[in-house]
């Protein structure tokens, strides 16, 4: 069975996916949303890669160095007694200015000889501009420069301790000592010796060890929680505070399906949920950067919020198709950009207001920052007050007709409920009452039109009798108590009707592209929480441990899971999936009082 058996390395500037065989099959430079230089994951023949070719006698295994985002791939040839390992990382550590981070757009590969005399071939095959441009090479004194023939200014650099001619001609080399490869977007101004590369490795390793040490520790599921936290850290674009949904584009929700989207953007919903999780687990700096991002995307009081943004705050994310690529396992089309930026999704405001209230009720901030954020709160509240009675596209980004989605109404209530609490926190009584009164109207409307007695559940929309997994979030955000009979019945009905082969559908009714054919990973985690809070704790834990078993070999999750094969599908790794894993795991464990390692 094929699977998304990839690891991820990154540094908050961009990220690369590395296969279990050690091939870099996805890498965009200089930033997350830049055109790819390696896209073998989307087209094995045309996409490009940086890999190691060895004989069939080699076996590979892969793991992260403990508590880090440094990936190790081990190549072993038992027949010849040969073994080497590849350490992949992107530099990240404090620079001379302690407030800044050294995070260049470059990837390091240390080839560490373990035993014997391994014979390897380096396949350096960059394909610039999403493999749309033909590439040529220039050999300099210290580097190989790959450039686009169509646009010679589009260049990348390869530095290596291995003979350049052997790399370019794909000649076999014998490892008799450690070697290195560095892919850089910029020409380096210092000599890239093996010693220098190992220094960068040590600095980066210490950075991640310190980062993990600041994370809260838990009695159970600690490895899964920590790995998911490390994944979320890699999805944060540190220059602006934006948080990506995933680092890929074009990985379909089901193999052969047309539901292929670009997820290298910041959805306010997903980002808010991720930031809340990072705060809860000991990383408030990510929240601080995100709050800065939120304030910057509103350039004036008259600006409107959008559901999603580019990682620098861009509003227009025009969607186009890369028709020359065959797609992941022949799944077309491959899209870049995302037309969902034009949609109306009223639920987004609730998630955003929730994290705003959580952040500012947790940390002391300067008066001017609080005043500025109160303007944002008032602006968001005006939008919600004007929009909550209207139809929208909903949490699942339906591209057809809009509807009165119950989950959107619930999160509109959350937005005004949290706005009222924010106003109370700063003694603005007029706004406390105004927002609370409007929130009460929304709640009354939902109970009147969203609860379907015949269905014994809340419904997906006011107008239909379909079920939707997003209804499980009603309890999470305080709209309804877990002991409320209507919520208990909703959980039980959703479990009975949307549960399929141990995983959950988002919904089972037909949408713009037919009936969904894979399980949306986050929904299974929501179901587990729903079961847990209504008292079905044993079933919840059994389901949780079963779902954990569907991760890839590095405990990473994508957006979706195939119901039948249990293989991962959808964009990868998915912030939504990992934040939900963390939140669900915390239901079954307790925080440790002290860290086991590297005490400050």
Short description:
By secondary structure, the protein is α+β, with helices and mostly antiparallel strands.
What does this structure look like?
The chain is of the alpha+beta class and 600 residues long. It has two domains: 6-211, Beta-galactosidase, Chain A, domain 5 (Distorted Sandwich), CATH 2.70.98.10; 215-585, Glycosyltransferase (Alpha/alpha barrel), CATH 1.50.10.10. It has 15 helices and 30 strands. An eight-stranded antiparallel sheet has the order 6-7-8-11-17-15-14-13, covered by helices on one side. A four-stranded antiparallel sheet has the order 1-2-3-4. A three-stranded antiparallel sheet has the order 5-12-16. Helix 5 (268-280) packs parallel to helix 7 (348-362), helix 5 packs parallel to helix 15 and helix 7 (348-362) packs antiparallel against helix 8 (367-387). The protein is globular and about 75 Å long. The relative contact order is 0.10. The model is unreliable at 595-600 (pLDDT under 50).
Topology:
Blueprint: E1 6-10, E2 15-19, E3 24-28, E4 36-38, E5 49-53, E6 59-64, E7 71-77, E8 82-89, E9 93-94, E10 101-102, E11 106-115, E12 119-125, H1 128-131, E13 135-139, E14 144-148, E15 155-160, H2 164-168, E16 172-174, E17 179-184, H3 194-214, H4 222-234, E18 236-237, E19 242-243, E20 266-267, H5 268-280, H6 284-297, E21 308-309, E22 320-321, E23 335-336, H7 348-362, H8 367-387, H9 406-425, H10 429-449, E24 451-452, E25 457-458, H11 473-476, H12 485-498, E26 499-500, E27 503-504, E28 518-520, H13 521-533, H14 537-548, E29 560-562, E30 568-569, H15 575-585
Antiparallel strand pairs: 1-2, 2-3, 3-4, 5-12, 6-7, 7-8, 8-11, 9-10, 11-17, 12-16, 13-14, 14-15, 15-17, 18-19, 20-21, 22-23, 24-25, 26-27, 28-29, 29-30
Helix pairs in contact: 4-15, 5-6, 5-7, 5-15, 7-8, 7-9, 8-9, 9-10, 13-14, 13-15
């Amino acid at each position: 069975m094929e699977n998304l058996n990839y690891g991820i390395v990154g540094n908050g500037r961009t990220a690369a996916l590395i296969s279990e065989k050690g091939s870099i099959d996805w890498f965009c430079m200089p930033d997350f949303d830049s055109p790819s230089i390696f896209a073998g994951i989307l087209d094995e023949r045309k996409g490009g890669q940086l890999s190691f070719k060895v004989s069939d006698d080699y076996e590979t295994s892969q793991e992260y160095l403990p508590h880090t985002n440094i990936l190790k791939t081990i190549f072993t040839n038992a027949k010849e007694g040969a073994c080497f390992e590849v350490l992949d990382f992107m530099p990240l550590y404090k620079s001379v200015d302690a407030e800044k981070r050294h995070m260049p757009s470059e990837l390091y590969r240390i080839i560490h000889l373990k035993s014997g005399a391994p014979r390897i071939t380096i396949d350096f095959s960059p394909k610039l501009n999403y493999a749309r441009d033909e590439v040529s090479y220039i050999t300099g004194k210290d580097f190989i420069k790959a450039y686009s023939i169509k646009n010679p200014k589009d260049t990348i650099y390869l530095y290596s301790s291995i003979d350049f001619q052997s790399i370019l001609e794909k000649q076999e080399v014998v490892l008799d000592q450690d070697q290195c490869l560095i892919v850089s977007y910029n020409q380096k101004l210092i000599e890239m010796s093996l010693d220098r590369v190992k220094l960068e490795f040590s600095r980066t390793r210490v950075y991640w060890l310190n980062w993990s040490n600041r994370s809260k520790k838990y009695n159970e599921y600690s490895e899964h929680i920590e790995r998911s936290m490390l994944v979320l850290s890699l999805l944060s674009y540190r220059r602006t505070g934006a948080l990506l949904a995933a680092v890929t584009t074009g990985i379909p929700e089901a193999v052969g399906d047309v539901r292929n989207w670009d997820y290298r953007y910041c959805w306010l919903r997903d980002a808010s949920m991720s930031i809340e999780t990072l705060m809860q687990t000991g990383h408030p700096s990510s929240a601080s950067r995100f709050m800065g991002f939120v304030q910057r995307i509103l350039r004036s009081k008259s600006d409107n919020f959008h559901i999603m943004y580019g990682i620098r705050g861009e509003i227009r994310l025009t969607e186009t198709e890369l028709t020359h690529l065959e797609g992941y396992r022949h799944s077309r089309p491959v899209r870049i950009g995302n037309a969902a930026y034009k949609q109306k999704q009223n639920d987004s405001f609730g998630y955003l207001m929730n994290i705003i209230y959580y952040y500012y009720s947790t940390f002391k901030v300067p008066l001017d920052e609080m005043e500025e954020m109160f303007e944002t709160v008032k602006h968001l509240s005006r939008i919600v007050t004007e929009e909550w009675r209207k139809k929208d596209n909903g949490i699942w980004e339906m591209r057809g007709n809009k509807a009165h989605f119950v989950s959107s109404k619930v999160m509109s209530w959350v937005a005004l409920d949290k706005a009222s609490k924010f106003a109370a926190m700063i003694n603005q009584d007029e706004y406390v009452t105004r927002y609370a009164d409007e929130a009460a109207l929304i709640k009354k409307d939902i109970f009147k039109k969203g609860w379907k007695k015949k269905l014994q559940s809340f419904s997906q929309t006011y107008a239909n009798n379909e079920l939707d997994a997003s209804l499980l979030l009603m309890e999470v955000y305080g709209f309804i108590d877990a002991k409320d009979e209507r919520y208990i019945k909703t959980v039980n009905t959703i479990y009975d009707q949307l549960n399929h082969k141990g995983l959950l559908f988002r919904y089972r009714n037909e949408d713009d592209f037919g009936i969904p054919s894979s399980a949306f990973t986050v929904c299974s985690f929501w179901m587990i929480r729903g079961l847990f809070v209504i008292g079905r704790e044993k079933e919840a834990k059994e389901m949780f441990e079963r779902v954990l078993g569907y991760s890839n070999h590095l405990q990473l999750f994508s957006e979706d899971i195939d119901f039948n094969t249990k293989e991962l599908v959808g964009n990868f790794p998915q912030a939504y999936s990992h934040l939900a894993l963390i939140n669900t795991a915390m239901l079954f464990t307790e925080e440790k009082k002290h860290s086991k390692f590297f005490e400050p």
